[in-house]
C-alpha cells in the first residue's frame, strides 16, 4: 500500500460521451489533415463495460465491439463457481478474444497465434482455462500446468495480481529478483525467458500443458529471441522445413503436423501487434512462427491493428510553442481521471517529471517510471499509481506494453510522439480499455510529424500496412 494518500480516488467523471461526428471522424480519416493548435475541454462519462455505446444519439445500447455478442462464460465451459468469482470482480461477459481462445485452450489440440487489441482481456483468456482445469481436478499435490513467458517482471507481477483477484486458491508463482525456485503447489509460473533458463528445473515442469508466449512480437525479436527458441526446443521441437528434411535424410518419418501430440504442451503466442514486414531477408515475427509451427491456428479479433473506436484523439502542433507549457495546458484541459504521459527517453521523462512537480496544480501528484530505475522501484511506482497515489504517471515505453494500469486512466498524452507504429498502438492502448472511453493527445513536433501524418491518414484507422 502506498504511503501517500490518493487525493482523487473518488473523482467524478462528468460530461458527455463522444459525439457521433467525432467518432465518424475517428473511423474515416481522410487525406485532408488539419492540425490544431488550440485545445478543447474533453469530458467523459465512464460507465460499466457492458453499458458503453459509441456515442450519444448513436446506436443506443450498442455494446462495445470488444465484447462477444450473445456468448456467455457458461457456453465457454467455465463452471458456475468460477463465473461467480468473475462477476464478483465486475466481469460478467467475455470479450471477443476470450470467447475465441478459452474453448481452444481447454481442448489443447492446436497451437495458437492470438492477435487481439490492447485492453481486450488476453490475460484472463489464457489464465481461465488453466484455472478451470485446476478446479475440475483438484489434487493434494499441484504441479505447474502453465508456463507464461513475459518480457518484464512488471508483467509477471501483474499476472499474479489479476489471478489472485479471483480467490480460487490457484497459485501463480514468479521467478526473478530474489526468487530462485518455483514454490511447491504453483499452478502457473510466470517469468522472463532468461530467468527461466537460469533458475528453472526441468522436473518442476514435467506436467506443463500450456506454454504461453505473451507479448510474442517482443519476445521473438532482438535479445529475447534466442532464449525463447531454446525454451521452445526444451518443450517441443518446432516442425520447421529444415528439420523435416533432416529427418527424411536420416530415414526417419517426420511428423505430419506441428500441433502438440499427447502429453506435449500446447503453445500459445499472444500479442496486440504482430508486424508483418516484407522482404527476402526480413525476419518477420509472423513469418518466424509460421515456418516453425505451420499448423498453428490464427485467432484474431476485428480491432487488431486498428485505432479503438472508443478512443478520442487530439493532435496538437507545437511548432514554436514551449512543449512543457503545452503539456501542462493539455492536462489541465483534459478529462478528469488519471493521466499517462509518454516520453521517448529517461532523461526527457525526468525533465518532464521535474517540471510537472513545479506546477502548483500537479505538485506532489506526479509519479515516474523508466528503464533506468530498478525493477522493484518501477513496480512500486506503477502499483502506487494504480492504487490512486498520484494523478499523473510520466513514463518511457516501459509502461506502454501489456500493463493494466487501472480503470481510471482517462487520458494518454504523448509528450514525444512514438518512433514507430507499434509503439504508438501500445501507448494509446493504455486508455479506452475493456470497453471504456478514453482520450489520447499527441504533441507533435518536427521529429514525429511524418509518422503522425501517415497514421492520421490511415483508412478507417487500420494501421496493419504501416509496420
Automatic annotation (TrEMBL):
* Helicase ATP-binding domain location: 103-292
Q: Which residues cross the membrane?
A: none
A Gene Ontology MF term for this entry?
nucleic acid binding
Record domain DEAD-box RNA helicase Q: where: 71-99
Q: List, alphabetically, the InterPro entries matched.
A: DEAD/DEAH_box_helicase_dom, DEAD/DEAH_RhlB, DEAD_box_RNA_helicase, Helicase_ATP-bd, Helicase_C-like, P-loop_NTPase, RNA_helicase_DEAD_Q_motif
What UniProt keywords are attached to this protein's entry? ATP-binding, Helicase, Hydrolase, Nucleotide-binding
Which residue numbers delimit the Helicase C-terminal domain? Answer: 323-467
Q: In which residues does the motif Q motif occur?
A: 71-99
Q: Which CDD domains match?
A: DEADc (cd00268), SF2_C_DEAD (cd18787)
Q: Which Pfam families match?
A: DEAD (PF00270), Helicase_C (PF00271)
- GO cellular component terms listed in the entry, alphabetical order: cytosol
Q: Which PROSITE patterns match?
A: HELICASE_ATP_BIND_1, HELICASE_CTER, Q_MOTIF
Q: What is this protein called?
A: RNA helicase
The major lineage groups are:
Eukaryota, Rhodophyta, Stylonematophyceae, Stylonematales, Stylonemataceae
